[in-house]
Amino acid sequence: MIHPLDLPPEPRPDPHGDPLALALVAEVLERPEGRDPERVARRAGVPRAEFDRRFTSFDACLVDTYERFIASFERAVGAAFNRHEEWRDALRAAAYAAGDWMGASPELMEFGSAGVLRTRNEMVRVRREEVAMFCARLIEQGREAAPDPSEVPEGASLLAVGSILNLLTQKLQEGSEVDLGEMVPEMLYLVLRVYLGEEVAREELRVSASGRVTENLEPGRVSSR
Predict the structure, then answer these.
(1) Which of 29, 73, 176, 222 is the most exposed place for a label (fewest CB within 10 A)?
(2) pTM, whole model, 2 decimals?
(3) Among candidates 134, 182, 181, which has minimal Cα distance to 161?
(4) Which residues pair with 213 in a beta bridge?
(5) What sign for the dihedral angle of Cα 191, 139, 84, 13?
(6) Are 145 and 157 in contact (CB under 8 A)?
(7) 146, 186 in Cβ contact below 8 A?
(8) The domain at 15-224 falls in which architecture?
(9) What is the pLDDT of residues 147-164, one digit of tens each?
(10) Domain extent listing, the chain
């Protein structure tokens, strides 16, 4: 059984439909060293006065935008996790929800993982780590589902999240194509192997996003299907 997650309030305004938030993301990805509110307002198609009415500075807009996208992400992932009772099912649902959320707006995946690091804003760096902690809490619930919880290494969940985040960041910084739908089964395999054992982890490689058994896959070959 899982422990349902507390979800953040729905972000207002919705960042996905907020011209200033979307312009901020595009500006950070294009000019990570930039700090020009005028460029953000112009990109958003709104008067500079509208930017100044809502934000006191470029960094204030950056932090606010990041906070609202984090809330959107955690609500989507957490809601998917909470819909299940068994941890393995909940984790799978959460993983695919994360992939769908990022896949719907690939620029947000780059903004949230690699882009914010280039802004050199300490607050968003801290919040980036806190999102990793949120994901680790989903994984760590697997300790109770493990045949022998004492055999699960301390810090296993943080190590798993760190490895995934580092992989994504590296691929994005290299300009490599990232297909999260293809990566999810392999990621789940790596996590489940630690918590539930090799046999269960291998079984996960045959389970699709809908829970149906698919072709037989081997570890290390998921991304080449």
Answers:
(1) 176
(2) 0.87
(3) 134
(4) 207
(5) negative
(6) no
(7) no
(8) Orthogonal Bundle (1.10)
(9) 999 999 999 999 988 888
(10) 15-224
